[in-house]
Task: inverse folding
């Protein structure tokens, strides 16, 4: 009886709305707040702003379709200045006062690790991480205890990236003698540990295991030892500055020299700006590139980015992953509404996805897998004349496509083009 | 053998960079008993300004050199008046913090102005490797070695053969007596501080094609370069040159024959051992003679 009455009331309301006589209840118009705290000012602001540009453009796309269930999306931004303490405060503000319904992760792994337990134990707001690649952000306590895990990720993740780098070199490029050359700081040593673990799993061990310090300007000793060990390829984890020192020293020592492969930490346009042609023929892992032929969807987005921001990309992966993160949230909300707990569950049940960074025919996330990109979705890119070109494989071996229709094979031994 | 000589040669090239920066520490210590603890950041400033003038504005390297030297000498004069003299005059050791604070300020300002990315400055003397049989070396490294030797020779000449140099030495010996003799001791102090800043800036110009320009480029460099005058004896430019080059060579040989992870442990350990054996440095005069 009551429900019949309500239904009648709704029909009457709808009629009045259509006639423009009845205001839609306030909550139906209230925007869906997506939270983002990241470094918006200071020396690493490029990454925070790049993520925000991805969020902004995705929100535009969602709102252009009329939003989700009639509600427009809106981003609430807080500046954490790359400082984990400020990230924690910003997350409290976003969740407790701003009442955001979902978040896109910050640009600092240490900060993300600091807020991970808060998100799972107190906030219960689904958070999709981009840019940060520490394994433990997703492999957190909640996951280990089988509780609901509110952390998801698009982009690289630590152990997956090490698997991908080692497997690509061993299985796709056919290398057997692998040398490690890693930075002594945290990022380099985590990489070194993960690469060694993967090599051990494949029944191998590095033929040389060299390290370098922050600010080292000469790598002669390390590279000569790697050369003396007869290495086929160098796997590197570190920052751009010391990578350039390695490139300079490689050039000085002359051929033959094992080719160079590194993680996505340096796979950004700033590498070519710092290294110039010294980076030619080096390979990095990543999940996306804006160079070379692109899908029409990505092409359109790249064109819009250039038009809107009138600048080159700072970190394409951060932009595209943040874009896809917001689109995935909109898909989940479209399905189950706006309760953060329901949205979290819905994210685990998106059967397939065609995004600009990630495109998959299987569920994007599952209860047990909160990494959107799996090892199969990672790519290698070869720096070629200032462009970071995706490496693909066919019967002739690895190749790049500088322009549509052109195929240039990569010599697996030297990474030179044939 | 190729291994040994290549490592030795590159160690010497790296050591020459340390020596070039290290000379700056010695200049102010000789005259004022003051050290610029932020000297590495002046190196950085020289490097960043080189990027802006030589790369962004496309100015000739000689014009860049003159401009950087002018800017840094002015800044050095101001820094001495504001952050060193008030403390030294009051008999305080506050200059230790003040000189470091100026350096940290530079890093923060540089991060805001230039960002944190490493910026490339092409070598002034060609990018091609010089090859001698199996060995290779960059011309820029040879330029740095030559400049280190040049800086040392110029300083020796300045100290012993020019009027200002003699005034520097007189002030170093006794500021009060030199004042009585009509030497402008305050002016000498300012000039020596500015000279140290300029030397650091020139080091920045020379090393930036090797180290890349970024706000942190001077931090480790300044610290390592600080070891050299301590080991050599702060008052000896000659000793600094020799020790700088030796330190670079030892670093290279440790990385080459042992492993790179223990390089800094051994190198700094060696420094402590030397100080234990000769507290005034290898080339220093025992301090009893000075008193």
Result:
């Amino acid at each position: 009886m009551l429900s019949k009455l309500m239904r009648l009331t709704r029909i009457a309301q709808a009629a009045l709305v259509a006639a423009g006589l009845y205001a839609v209840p306030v909550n139906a118009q209230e925007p869906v707040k997506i939270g983002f705290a990241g470094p918006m000012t200071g020396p690493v602001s490029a990454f925070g702003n790049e993520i925000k540009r991805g969020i902004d453009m995705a929100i535009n796309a969602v709102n252009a379709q009329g939003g989700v269930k009639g509600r427009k999306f809106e981003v609430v931004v807080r500046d954490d200045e790359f400082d984990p303490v400020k990230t924690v405060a910003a997350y409290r503000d976003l969740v407790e006062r701003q009442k955001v319904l979902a978040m896109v992760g910050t640009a600092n792994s240490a900060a993300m690790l600091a807020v991970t337990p808060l998100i799972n134990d107190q906030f219960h707001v689904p958070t999709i991480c981009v840019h940060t690649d520490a394994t433990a952000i997703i492999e957190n306590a909640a996951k280990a205890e089988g509780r609901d895990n509110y952390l998801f990720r698009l982009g690289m993740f630590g152990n997956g990236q090490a698997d991908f780098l080692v497997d690509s070199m061993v299985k796709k490029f056919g290398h057997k003698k692998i040398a490690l050359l890693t930075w002594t700081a945290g990022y380099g040593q985590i990489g070194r540990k993960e690469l060694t673990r993967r090599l051990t799993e494949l029944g191998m061990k590095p033929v040389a295991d060299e390290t370098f310090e922050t600010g080292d300007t000469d790598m002669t000793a390390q590279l000569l030892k790697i050369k003396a060990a007869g290495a086929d390829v160098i796997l590197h984890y570190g920052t751009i500055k010391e990578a350039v020192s390695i490139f300079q020293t490689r050039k000085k020592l002359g051929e033959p020299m094992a080719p160079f492969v590194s993680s996505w930490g340096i796979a950004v346009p700033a590498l070519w700006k710092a290294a110039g042609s010294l980076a030619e023929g080096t390979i990095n892992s990543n999940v996306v590139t804006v160079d070379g032929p692109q899908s029409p969807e990505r092409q359109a987005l790249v064109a819009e980015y250039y038009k809107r921001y009138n600048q080159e990309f700072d970190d394409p992966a951060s932009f595209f992953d943040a874009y896809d993160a917001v689109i995935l949230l909109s898909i989940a909300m479209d399905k189950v509404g706006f309760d953060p707990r329901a949205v979290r569950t819905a994210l685990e049940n998106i059967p397939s996805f065609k995004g600009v960074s990630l495109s998959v025919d299987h569920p994007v996330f599952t209860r047990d897998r909160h990494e959107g990109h799996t090892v199969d979705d990672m790519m290698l890119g070869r720096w070629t004349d200032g462009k970071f070109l995706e490496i693909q494989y066919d019967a002739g071996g690895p190749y790049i496509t500088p322009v549509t229709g052109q195929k240039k094979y990569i010599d697996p031994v030297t990474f030179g083009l044939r | 053998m190729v291994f040994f000589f290549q490592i030795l040669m590159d160690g010497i090239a790296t050591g020459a960079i340390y020596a070039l920066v290290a000379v700056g520490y010695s200049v102010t210590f000789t005259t004022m008993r003051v050290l610029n603890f932020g000297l590495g950041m002046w190196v950085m400033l020289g490097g960043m300004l080189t990027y802006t003038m030589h790369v962004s504005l496309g100015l000739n390297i000689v014009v860049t050199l003159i401009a950087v030297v002018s800017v840094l000498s002015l800044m050095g004069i101001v820094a001495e008046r504001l952050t060193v003299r008030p403390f030294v005059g009051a008999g305080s050791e506050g200059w230790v913090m003040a000189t470091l604070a100026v350096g940290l300020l530079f890093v923060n300002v540089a991060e805001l102005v230039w960002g944190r990315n490493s910026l490339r400055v092409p070598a002034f003397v060609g990018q091609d490797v010089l090859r001698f049989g199996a060995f290779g070396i960059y011309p820029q490294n040879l330029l740095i070695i030559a400049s280190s030797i040049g800086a040392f020779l110029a300083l020796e000449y300045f100290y012993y053969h020019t009027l200002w140099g003699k005034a520097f030495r007189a002030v170093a010996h006794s500021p009060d007596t030199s004042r009585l003799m009509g030497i402008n001791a305050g002016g000498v102090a300012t000039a020596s501080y500015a000279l140290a800043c300029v030397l650091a800036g020139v080091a920045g110009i020379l090393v930036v094609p090797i180290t890349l320009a970024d706000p942190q480029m001077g931090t480790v460099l300044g610290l390592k370069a600080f070891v050299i005058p301590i080991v050599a004896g702060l008052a000896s430019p000659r000793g600094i040159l020799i020790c700088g080059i030796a330190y670079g060579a030892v670093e290279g040989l440790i990385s080459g024959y042992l492993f790179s992870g223990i390089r800094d442990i051994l190198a700094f350990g060696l420094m402590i051992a030397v100080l234990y054996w000769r507290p005034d440095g290898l080339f220093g005069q025992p301090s009893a003679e000075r008193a």
Q: What stands out?
A: Residues 2-222 of chain B form one domain. The CA atoms of residues 255 and 261 of chain B lie 8 Å apart. Chain B has eleven helices and two strands.
